[in-house]
């Protein structure tokens, strides 16, 4: 990487700070839903497989909303796309109040679906937005850095949700009042962020997605084969596939973390939920470490190495070797850390005017998270440790992408 390639430019700093904050917001919401998973098992008496439908509601929204979000972004721009995402996000959180009043798991899934539509819109917009705020050669580092704060949000989410949900359930019995207050508060915060972002003036971008006459195609996102349709760019197709399996592995691993602590380690739900804070901290550490390493090592090589380590970790976790397996479960989140943003940024390389459409399709890959929790839940109903064999399939696909299929053909 050239020393001339700056991380970003001074004129983009305020915008980049706000875009980075969005990554933290949906990190909080995603990880809260994993605690919600266990809370609904306790309060609404749903099975592990049924509670996995929470992730189906959230990630299914990605499948439906990502393409419309990409079209909206291309028509109205990044900033308006962010405001649409925040509006849907807030609407979904406020719907938790009538859902709790109705004591209805189905109503909660509707609220989660709308919340998911907001997160899908934000992810579709925020990744190319962060990538566009500077030189393409440093886009991997920018997206990974922004995603580091997504990991910070993933630490905050379980801490808040465990305090408001699992602690309350343990002390005051089965109630949904805490769910109402928690999500209404989150909704108010999102509205505040939206109002602030509305008044931020985004500098005019020399849009790298429409530049065609640039000599250094490593620095600027230019389609090196403009005659090709999007689906003919093999590195993009593989990125979309890898992202599907990546988020499938993430959602499944996160969904049953608390169950693993409770059933295999003998912890209370609250104690297992508190361990989830440390679990998410491992992802934040991994993102910052990974972002630093990318100054010296090609991102695809780090991706392949972390995927291989994840395969070994899943095998150990599935053995139920007490603390050895439990500590290894924490390492999965460290290795998972750089996968989502790195797959995303590698998939967007040299697509030129196809970039925003490509972002929509890679975001759609997040629907993988709707699939794995249900199947892992079916196995977890018998043995939660054995369920961790399933993500190995996902990490094999990611390893292949990082080691071979990431290449941009010139």
Briefly characterize the structure.
The protein has 410 residues and is mainly α.
Write up this protein:
- It is a multi-pass membrane protein.
- The protein has helices at residues 13-43, 48-51, 53-76, 78-94, 96-102, 105-132, 139-172, 177-198, 234-255, 257-264, 269-293, 299-317, 323-336, 339-347, 355-364, 368-380, 391-405.
- It is mainly α.
- α10 (257-264) crosses α11.
List the helices and strands and how they pair.
Layout: H1 13-43, H2 48-51, H3 53-76, H4 78-94, H5 96-102, H6 105-132, H7 139-172, H8 177-198, H9 234-255, H10 257-264, H11 269-293, H12 299-317, H13 323-336, H14 339-347, H15 355-364, H16 368-380, H17 391-405
Subcellular location: Cell inner membrane
GO molecular function, one term: transmembrane transporter activity
Keywords: Cell membrane, Membrane, Transmembrane, Transmembrane helix
Q: At the fourth CATH level, what is the homologous superfamily?
A: MFS general substrate transporter like domains
Under the CATH scheme, which class? Answer: Mainly Alpha
Mean pLDDT, nearest integer? 85
Strand content: under 5%
Q: Please estimate the helix content.
A: over 70%
Gross morphology: globular
- How is the main sheet built? none
- State the CATH architecture: Up-down Bundle
Q: Tally the beta strands.
A: 0
Number of helical segments?
17
Class from secondary-structure proportions = mainly alpha
Helices and strands, in order, run as HHHHHHHHHHHHHHHHH
Distance between the termini: 18 Å
The CATH topology assignment is Growth Hormone, Chain: A
